Amino acid sequence: MPPDLKLVIRLQELDSRLAELAREIAALPKHVAEIEKKLVSHERKLEADRAALAANQKERKKCEGDVQIQEQKISKLKDQMQGAKTNEVFKAFQHEIEFCEKEIRKAEDRNLDLMGESELLDKNVKSAETALKAEKADVEAEKTQARERTAVDRKASQELLEERAGIVKSISPSLYQRYERVRPNRKGIAVAEVVDGRCTACQIVLRLQYFQDLKHGEAILSCESCQRILYYNGPQTVESFEGGTRVLMS
Asked: What is the overall mean pLDDT for the chain?
């Protein structure tokens, strides 16, 4: 295999890895933003539950206050009823007292309903608070991991870029130009292996003579279909000999 071809194969490996690292670096902030968005949503739900619980407690106090007011009215009406001079006035006081008693029952019934709702709301708030606390800890842990992963990826990218720069200096300019010309139009893949006489990138079978020329390795060839730079690794055979084995290229 020509030395320049080995270099361009390594160059493709570096560029593929650099692309993976770039995607990961770009994806990490999006992942963090997504989990933070969910956290904010859960915080808002908790605040809504707290507000509902506060409103419930406020209405319960109002019901209890209404009961007290009606009881005070009844007490006054009974005092006034003792001074009634006629049956009509007496009955009028009775009607007023009955109305107050109905209002008391309504307030007490409503208070019972609110107590039932309050238990559920209070349970939801406490459960949400516990879950939110754990979720916040998980989010912070994931953010820390994302920052650490990003730092590792950036360091790795820098090391790969330095190796890439060295290869670009060593490779022939014409081959590097071929490589860079093909890469943007082939989703970043400008080099392809040939297996069983077929380009593994576009799956087109090479002409027999073209395949033979590639195997001889006298020139660096490109796929006639997708224009990717081709390379061929012949099959390996293992031959036994006394004291061990040796690998022969067939």
From this structure: 90
The answer to whether 104 and 70 are in contact (CB under 8 A) is: yes
Q: What is the mean pLDDT of residues 100-108?
A: 93
Strand partners, 247: 238
Same domain? 166 vs 178: no
Do 148 and 121 sit in the same domain of this protein? yes
Q: Is the pLDDT of residue 2 over 60?
A: yes
Mind listing the pLDDT tens digit for each residue in 113-134?
999 999 999 999 999 999 999 9
Q: Which is it for strands 191-195 and 198-199: parallel, antiparallel or unpaired?
A: antiparallel
Cα distances (Å, whole numbers) of residue 168 to 7, 187, 191: 9, 20, 15
DSSP states of 20-87: HHHHHHHHHHHHHHHHHHHHHHHHHHHHHHHHHHHHHHHHHHHHHHHHHHHHHHHHHHHHHHTT--SH
pTM of the model: 0.66
**How many C-beta atoms lie closer than 10 Å to residue 171's C-beta?**
20
Q: Which of these three, 170, 201, 225, is where a domain ends?
A: 170
Answer yes or no: do 119 and 9 share one domain. yes
- Residues 51, 155, single domain; the answer is yes
Same domain, yes or no: 107 and 211:
no
Q: 146 and 117 share a domain?
A: yes
Phi/psi for 205 (5° steps) reads -80, 130
